[in-house]
Design goal:
By secondary structure, the chain is an alpha+beta fold. The chain contains 30 helices and 31 strands. The N terminus is likely disordered.
Length: 964
């Protein structure tokens, strides 16, 4: 560290108290120390090797990797709610440095995404230009807060040097398959070797060598962890792109723009995240995450046990998954989701003889009926389709399936209450035991068979029922054939018996199903990572060799995908990249021995989640152009160790809104990279902490329009804007709500240290809290009192007393060491509000005592404040005569002798009523405490000479006397 003393250059301002801590002084101190930290590389975290290797003594310390969730550089800049988590991680990181850790704490930018592209569409500005301008502004705002980031490690996902490795990871996933037996991903080349050698049979018979190149590609596509397929997707004409399930709101509209979303079949890239469902579920138990987040992930993955059942149809079959195979004898019809690929295959040209009019929907042929119904279903969201609507809709597809347990021919319908997103997209309908099936059966005059003995007195004739009867306790009935009988069994035993029969007869098998669907990984946008994939003249996908990465985005004239009438479901995507012919059609030598060939590039781009799936790894080794990350460096920062069985980041802080999307995707990528041997950590984030939200009051006029909060006046408990009464409601803070307060405003009025203290003191970090600008001054006054306790406001000179600790009075030593003990525990537990309260208590004690503060006390007070208010702490530390930065000083350790209370209050009870209170030593023995209680004047008087039957002593706080 440099011996330069920036404190010596502080200017003196003309004032009644020229050296009082003011906003102007805070601004000057803060800017000067921020420059010093940058120049000295104060926050540089050394790696064990590579271009970021550094101080061996620091590397030898225990390490801490502390991360914030990737920020998106919005054009609106920051309001005071945004830095809450950043300040918290900074305080925690500073504390960890002072307690002997090598701390990696840095921040980059998740800079691809729709907002920049929409701005580009509106203005013609290249998304990179607007994004980089936003990043520059955000960096400036964050720097002003004094955040201790290792700036050598910062990057943005739009940097080609970064997304080169995003593309490289995609290729690792593309070139991998999941081995169900080994329970891990393996290179696709090993699967090819199995097919080629005959170790694994080629489906349909034949040999690998006999397959054409296209047939081989199709077969491998059934196994690859990244694959393209024609599948039902969420098509949003208003945005001109498809969306992942997680990007569609509960009412079937796009999260961004609020446009209608329709089901459409398109060829898209997918990630086979479902292969990892069990591991994603099981490994949650080893993570230090909030239980609420774990529950959301468990629910999203949605593991359920049941059976697969095959219903034969004209020599083929419809497969269903059911959690209640014990009700199979009650299945009287089947339903396929409108998007199910078997609908077209099983729909005949004409209605079978005897088809009921109620089943046809009024159409002349099954083909017409199914087409019309599919169009109707495409306009509904999944939530609308699953709603408990009174009127059930559907049409008969003109085919019958065979119920395997009794041989009955059951009609097959298509209905929108069945979704492709769960199970197989097909159900066996048991109307006696499911309310939706019951209502559908009534509407379409279908049989209802009682197969569970009702326990509510309704009887066993479903024609008299008003609703379905479902029970896990009742006995099974009407469920037997020549080979198996379930009658009289309970549900659990019946499920076991029918599953055994299904497996024995080949009609099905016990299985586990998941709600989780494969991750849709294509976007019809410009501003995203290009896929490193090209197609030959036969449409076969080929990965680009690593030497051709990064594949950069071309310049285009029009940044927008083609958008359509938001309500027009019969449209198809047209991407910005597809219009750039010179980029799309290229001649390349892929190094496969075939020489230069003509190819067509993939014109979709990756979703905005791609870059945030692995960014923790880039922080470790940000300048490595040869490897994703050096294995030794990754092992050092993220490898498994005691208490972290799967490895990962030590602390990850961000909003709970990312419970499913980002966190689940990042976990999937980590597990693939772990399986392939690229990293030692099977989980990206070991400890997760969700900070609360800073809220603000929203004021609305009589029209419901938000008015500027800063212009609202309060009069007699009511609120007025320009003379008109307005309503007030606590909500989010934001520019559109006209209630945003920027950190720049608060820093200008009070300084960054005050803002830091106020945000940390507002309440527990994981709880939302309302912003109150008027309350900020309280933390400013704390810093002013702290300053006065060390610096003479008139002269600017040090005002502490140079005495030994042995000369400090006992009360002050006790206050000091209690504060040290409490603040240390609170900072370790991220209870920053109570840590500040303890600092305030100590500071107030020193102010009350008066006189010069003893140096041993002043120095440790400054060290206690350093993680919370680093600028003023650095300034005072230098004024106290130190030449090193406070950032790397040791955090104070409490003397246990002063932490224990000198006395505690012991309550003395007679017949359960308090008769006396004694001040005793915390270490008093039970014998001595009993003697003291019995000798007390008030106790003697209360006993009045009565004998004593029993004395119960709970040292040091209770004595209970039972008279004879």
């Amino acid at each position: 560290m440099s011996e330069t003393n920036p404190a010596a250059t502080a200017p003196v301002t003309a004032d009644a108290a020229p050296h009082r801590y003011t906003a102007a002084m805070a601004a000057e101190i803060e800017a000067r120390w921020q420059d010093f930290w940058d120049a000295e590389g104060t926050y540089a975290a050394p790696n064990p090797k590579g271009d970021l290797a550094g101080d061996p003594e620091l590397v030898a310390r225990p390490k801490k990797f502390i991360m914030d969730m990737f920020p998106y550089p919005s054009g609106a800049g920051l309001h005071v709610g945004h830095p809450l988590g950043y300040i918290a991680t900074d305080v925690f990181a500073r504390f960890q440095r002072m307690t002997g850790h090598n701390v990696l704490h840095t921040l980059g930018f998740d800079a691809f995404g729709l907002p920049a592209e929409q701005y580009a569409v509106q203005t013609g500005t290249h998304p990179r230009a607007s994004t980089e301008a936003n990043m520059k502004n955000m960096v400036s705002q964050l720097r002003r807060l004094g955040l201790g980031h290792d700036k050598r490690r910062s990057f943005a996902t739009i940097d080609p040097e970064y997304y080169k490795w995003t593309q490289w990871i995609f290729l690792q996933i593309f070139n991998s398959w999941y081995d169900d037996e080994a329970k891990r991903a393996r290179p696709i080349s090993e699967l090819v070797a199995q097919f080629d050698s005959g170790e694994r049979a080629v489906p349909g018979g034949g040999t690998w060598s006999a397959l054409t190149e296209a047939e081989r590609a199709d077969l491998l596509g059934e196994y690859r962890l990244a694959y393209a397929s024609d599948a039902p997707v969420n098509w949003c004409p208003g945005l001109g792109t498809v969306l992942a399930n997680e990007e569609v709101t509960a009412d079937g509209r796009s999260e961004r723009g609020n446009f209608p979303v329709f089901k459409s079949k398109l060829r898209q890239w997918n990630m086979r995240i479902t292969a990892y469902a069990d591991r994603l579920l099981d490994d949650l138990d080893q993570l230090d995450w909030p239980e609420a987040i774990k529950l959301q992930q468990r629910n999203w993955i949605g593991r359920s046990e049941g059976a697969r059942v095959d219903f034969p149809v004209d020599g083929e079959r419809i497969t269903v998954f059911t959690t209640r195979p014990d009700t199979l004898f009650g299945a009287t019809y089947m339903v396929l989701a409108p998007e199910h690929p078997l609908v077209e295959k099983f729909t005949p040209a004409a209605w079978p003889e005897g088809t009921r009019d109620a089943w046809t929907g009024g159409h002349a042929t099954p083909t017409e009926a199914v087409a019309a119904y599919r169009a109707q279903a495409a306009s509904k969201s999944d939530v609308e389709r699953q709603a408990e609507a009174k009127d059930k809709t559907g049409v008969f597809i003109g085919a019958y399936a065979t119920n395997p347990v009794n041989g009955e021919q059951v009609p097959v319908f298509v209905a929108d209450y069945v979704l492709m997103g769960y199970g197989t997209g097909a159900i066996m309908a048991v109307p006696a035991g499911d309310q939706r099936d019951f209502e559908f059966a009534r509407a379409f005059e279908l049989p209802i068979r009682c197969i569970v003995e009702p326990t509510d007195g309704r009887g066993t004739d479903p024609s008299t029922w008003e609703s379905a009867f479902a029970s896990y306790d009742a006995k099974i009935m009407n469920s037997s054939n020549d080979e198996v009988s379930l009658d009289g069994l309970g549900v659990v035993e019946a499920k076991e018996r029918i599953t055994e029969w299904l497996e024995r007869t080949g009609a099905g098998a016990g299985t586990v199903n998941f709600r989780l669907r494969d991750w849709l990984f294509s976007r019809q946008r410009y501003w995203g990572e290009p896929f490193p994939i090209v197609y030959d003249e036969d449409g076969i996908a080929h990965p680009l060799p690593a030497s051709m990465l990064p594949l950069e985005l071309p310049e285009v004239e029009d940044y927008s995908p083609r958008t359509f009438d938001p309500d027009d479901a019969d449209t198809k995507p047209e991407t910005p990249l597809s219009r750039n012919e010179d980029w799309v059609h290229v001649t390349l030598d892929l190094g496969d021995g075939r020489g230069p060939r003509r190819y067509r590039r993939e014109t979709n781009t990756m979703p905005n989640w791609a870059g945030s799936c692995w960014y923790e790894l880039r922080y470790l080794d940000p300048h490595n152009s040869e490897q994703l990350v050096d294995p030794e460096i990754e092992q050092y920062w993220m490898g498994p160790r005691e208490g972290l069985p799967h490895g990962g980041v030590d602390l990850y802080v961000g909003g709970a809104e990312h419970a499913v999307l980002h966190l689940l995707y990042a976990r999937f990528w980590s597990k693939v990279l772990f399986d392939l041997g690229h990293v030692s950590s099977a989980e990206p984030f070991h400890k997760l902490f969700n900070q609360g939200m800073i809220q603000a009051y929203v004021y609305r006029d009589s029209r419901g329009i938000a008015v500027p909060a800063a212009e609202v006046e309060e009069r007699d408990g009511a609120y007025f804007h320009q003379g008109e009464k307005v309503s007030r409601l606590l909500g989010k803070m934001g520019k559109s709500l006209k209630n945003a307060v920027t950190p720049d405003e608060i820093c200008a009025e009070y300084g960054a240290d005050t803002l830091r203290l106020y945000e940390m003191a507002m309440g527990p970090l994981d709880v939302s809290r309302p912003w109150d600008t008027r309350a900020v001054v309280g933390q400013f006054r704390l810093l002013q009192r702290l300053w006065r306790n060390v610096v003479d406001e008139d002269t600017g000179r040090l005002s502490v007393a140079d005495v030994a600790e042995t000369d400090v009075d006992a009360d002050t030593l006790r206050a000091l060491h209690k504060a040290i003990d409490g603040v240390r525990q609170d900072l370790e537990g991220m209870r920053f509000n109570t840590a500040i309260a303890k600092v305030t208590e100590l500071n107030n004690h020193l102010t009350k005592v008066g006189g010069p503060v003893p140096r041993p006390v002043a120095e440790r007070l400054v060290l206690l404040v350093a993680p919370l208010a680093p600028h003023v702490a650095e300034e005072l530390w230098r004024k106290l005569g130190h030449t090193s930065s406070v950032v790397h000083e040791d955090f104070p350790v409490a003397d246990p002798a002063y932490v224990v209370d000198e006395t505690v209050t012991c309550v003395v009870q007679i017949k359960g009523k308090v008769k006396a209170r004694l001040e005793v030593s915390p270490s008093v023995s039970e014998e001595d405490l009993e003697k003291a209680a019995l000798a007390d004047e008030k106790v003697v008087a209360a006993l009045g000479g009565a004998g004593i039957r029993k004395v119960i002593v709970r040292a040091p706080k209770l004595v209970n006397i039972v008279p004879a």
